[in-house]
Structures are given as structure tokens and as C-alpha cells.
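=== How it folds ===
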Amino acid sequence: MADDPETEVMSHVNRAILVVEDEKPIADTIVYALRTEGFVPHWAAALGAARAILAAETVALVILDVGLPDGNGFDFCREIRTKYPVPVIFLTARSGEVDRVVGLELGADDYVAKPFSPRELTARVRAVLRRSESVPLAVGGKTPSVAGPWSHDSAKCRIAYRGAPLDLTRNEYRLLATLVAAPGRVFSRDQLMHAAWDDPGAAMDRTVDAHIKTLRAKLRAAAPEADPIETHRGMGYSLREET
């Protein structure tokens, strides 16, 4: 309905969804559920077809199975992160904690285990898309800002350090944007999880630590002598002022 707030929000969102799933009955269920909710699904049964769709179409989100006939979904997620700023929801029969943590550490925005409810999956898709369209927590206006060595364009979700643009995953961007917005402030891991993850309950302390580690590596690549993120043992992390 026109006066439905969620419908109004979704009307401004790209509705194209890439579904990468090799089991046709499952793919048919997902495609039908997405179409029922007004999305435009594109189905790929293998990674080769998925690459072709990503190259030809602008999709809003990828639903990605882990086990595929021509490769591994985790590896493909890494590949997506290097080329496309698109959220990823893993869909897999492997629901163990290790697999879940690996998926989230790779930058996945959510993780759904089989068997699943199509309604729950579409609700998660909507939640991820709403979050991806919003400005990250602790980030101010949408105009580019410069503070010391940092340049942050929140409208384009881009951060540069000492003039060097940083190639960040979605969660890395959200973490760093939160720190950049308040230099010197110590953020707990729980605060950072709520700032960067759509489902903070799914993340763990070591997931935040892993993302901080990759952020530090990318910052060292931009400025080898610098170490702008400070660890506060037992408390969390902060951004050093004027580093």
C-alpha cells in the first residue's frame, strides 16, 4: 500500500537480487519469494553464471550458497568484495559456528542456514538493504568532511587516509567510519558490532578483532609508519588523534 512505511522505503531501493544456488528447487523457492515481495531476482546455478550477471547487471544484494559445483562461496565472496560494493547473505546447510564466523569475517552481511523460511529470508534481505541505504552509526552528515589526515565522504561511503583512498569492505567501512567520527573516544567491541553489523548478535568479539586487523593492514599500506588505531585492553578501540 502507498501509506506502508516499509513499502515507501523499499521504493527507493534497487530491487535486483542475485541468487547463487545450484539446487533448483531451493532456487525456485527463493526466486518466487523474492518476486512475491517485489524484488527482481536473477538466478545463477554456478559461479561462472554469477560472474556474468554481476558484470552485466547492477544488483542490490547477493544471496550466495557456500557449496557450489564450480567453486566455494567463501572464495567468491572475497572476489565480490574486491570488485562490487554489494551486500552478501550466505545461504548454506553448514550452520556450525566456525563456518558462520568465517562468513562474517569475510564481510558477509548475514548468514542463513538451511532449511530456512522464505519469509524469514526476504525479511533479512529487506533488513540488509535498509541498513545499506542508511548512514552508518556515529557518522554525521552526508557531505565530505576532512579531519586531520582523514577524508570521509559518507554519501559515497569512502574514506581516505593521508590522501590515499582505502579499499574497504562494507563492515570495515562502518567500523572505521565510527572511529573517524570520534577520534580519541574508546569504543567497546559491543558498540562497534552494533555500528557495523546488521545483526550484531551474530558477530563475536574476535570478529571485530579480525576486522580491526585487516583495517590496520590497509592503513599500513597507505602509510607504513602510521598506526592510527589504538587498542585499549579490556575496553576496546579508539582512533588516535591527529595521526
